[in-house]
Design a protein that fits this description.
heterodimer, A: nine-stranded mixed beta sheet, 9 strands, globular, B: 49% helix, binds zinc ion
């Protein structure tokens, strides 16, 4: 579950942690992506600051395309101007970037049409996408009252969402009162929350921004799909700390 | 259809499937159980089943979706991989109030699948896209 995000965290981990972490192997996540594996349909809702979410989504897209070699479709309303600074470290080949298809739907209707058309032959050659990313879902939902999750198995889905109910100062919990988020949670198996760390330690870190990253399962699948829960590696870290340098490079640490 | 239902409901559908295979009807005790688990939805869904209101559409790409003709004659598309119905009852009772697991249309789909009485129909890939996007009725 959430293995792509987890391999992003591991790849961009600070050096001290890399030495400790014997399990670091982006290719171990790859095995779960093989076609026919019923456990592949995983979906993550990424909550928090939009610009950091976007960098994380881009890192995930590049990781999935270059390390796991899968086709990625990236839906966003804003043109991609540049790749995150952290990506310069791993220098992905231009070939792997070609496996990412950027799509720029302007409205919810456009997005629904493009997602619904992903199974058509012009979108499935040579292979259908194995990862669908939606940047800033809230931008598509707007004030419309009907939402549909663009989920589609067997394929991964990562979408970022920034709640109207601002959770920055109250910790992640207050976001539970957002009615849109309540509905979205039904359709995503995992939640990944980005929460700005404003503690003393964070202030002492100086120019770096510190963020806490929490991975958690959402309610419905936890109760209704015990089989999938058993498949989940028990020792998988659920908390990370993200530090962002003034130049924009990102580094992860296990919490 | 991927299920997000409590175990008791899952078991109930399995029992209905077994009974219907053997006797081509649903025995009274299972009907009572159905009404107990799903409330007033149950009878309405059974009506939809009787009226052959559920069709499973398939396209060459392998995509499937269910289409249910509602009481008012409106067509509702229910997805295979995701528990969702575009009807007002689902939006209000399930998503907003969280008062039940499903609407009569999704229940009718489960029942038709259990009883193996779903109508089958083929559509083209572009027709399936239109259907899945919910942008226009087929
Ligand atoms: Zn319905």
């Amino acid at each position: 579950m959430a293995d792509i995000l987890t391999s992003v965290f591991r790849t961009f981990m600070s050096q001290t942690d890399v030495n400790k972490d014997v399990t670091m192997d982006p290719h171990s996540a790859c095995s779960a992506l093989l076609p026919g594996d019923s456990s592949v349909s995983s979906s993550v809702l990424l909550l928090g600051d939009s610009s950091i979410s976007r960098s994380l989504l881009l890192l995930s897209a590049v990781m999935a395309a270059s390390e796991l070699g899968v086709r990625v479709v990236f839906f966003t309303q804003t043109q991609i101007q540049s790749l995150p600074v952290s990506l310069q470290k791993c220098v992905p080949s231009p070939e792997s970037l070609k496996k990412i298809k950027f799509s720029y739907p302007r409205t919810l209707g456009d997005l629904l049409q493009q997602v619904a058309g992903l199974h058509e032959s012009q979108n499935t050659s040579p292979t259908p996408p194995s990862l669908i990313i939606v940047d800033r879902l809230e931008g598509f939902l707007g004030r419309e009252t009907t939402q549909r999750s663009p989920s589609s198995a067997p394929c991964r889905l990562i979408a970022s969402f920034r709640s109207d109910v601002d959770s920055e100062h109250a910790g992640g919990e207050s976001s539970a009162t957002d009615p849109i988020l309540d509905v979205l949670d039904r359709y995503f198996q995992m939640r990944c929350t980005l929460d700005r760390d404003r503690s003393y330690e964070a202030a002492a870190a100086g120019l770096k921004e510190l963020w806490n990253v929490y991975l958690s399962a959402t309610g419905i699948t936890e109760d209704a799909c015990p089989k999938e829960r058993e498949d989940r590696p028990a020792a998988a870290p659920k908390e990370w700390q993200l530090s962002i340098s003034p130049d924009g490079s990102m580094e992860f640490k296990m919490a | 259809m991927r299920s997000f239902l409590p175990a008791v409901a899952e078991q109930l559908f399995r029992d209905i499937q077994k009974a219907y295979q053997e006797t081509s009807q649903i025995p009274d005790d299972l009907l009572i159980a159905l009404k107990f688990v799903f409330g007033p939805c149950a009878l309405q869904a059974l009506d939809l089943v009787d009226q052959h209101s559920v069709t499973c559409l398939s396209s060459p790409s392998g995509r499937k979706a269910f289409q249910v003709i509602g009481g008012s004659g409106r067509l509702y598309t229910c997805f295979v991989s995701c528990h969702y119905c575009p009807c007002p009852a689902f939006a209000y009772t399930v998503l907003r109030r969280n008062e039940g697991p499903l609407c009569k249309h999704i229940l009718a789909v489960y029942l038709c699948q259990a009883m193996a009485v779903t109508q089958q129909e083929s559509v083209s890939d572009p027709q399936m896209s239109t259907l899945l996007s919910g942008t226009a009725p087929l």
